[in-house]
Amino acid sequence: MGFELILTSALLGAGLAMDAFSVSIANGLADRNMKTGRMLTIAGTFAAFQFAMPMIGWFVVRRMAETFEWFSPLIPWIALVLLLFIGGGLLKDGIEELKESKAAEASGESDAGAESDDGGAEKLGALMLFGQGVATSIDALSVGFTTASYNAAQALVSSLIIGVVTLAICMAGLRIGRRLGEMLAGKASILGGVILIAIGLEIWIRGVFF
Hints:
Blueprint: H1 2-16, H2 18-30, H3 36-67, H4 75-106, H5 126-137, H6 143-146, H7 152-179, H8 185-209
């Protein structure tokens, strides 16, 4: 269970972090002179929310499974539906972003969002950062359904791995935003969608047939 837990958690973290990755790219674009400490604050905020949400979901689902015996067999099906929904949404958003990017390039507007190198956009405030953290991690709440079979220690380790993966991915996103622009945002969403759909199918197959 140890290696499987680590691998599944890391893949979940990568898939769930794609929204935060895209937002991190945008934040990097908005502040081209962002310092490492500021980057750690932003990425750490996203990571903290991605850690907390699965734990909250796990706690709620475990309580339901313990209280209602009929609920446990439904967990693989719920996990499948939720991850298909979230992954499908990421795929759809990613495809739309790629189409918009290609359309902008065709019309010569690809550099419209990068008008200056001195930070350009308004600095990211604490309230806005908090909102970004919630918005990019709310999907992770449903991960509690996928980890409902874990005990408390396993759920904690899984959430920690998801948080660490998110931290690393968001730090990369901020650096990419500062240097390369928006070219990877849509592709990241597509990759995240594929990962989450694959995990949903794996959990469903393992829960129903094994």
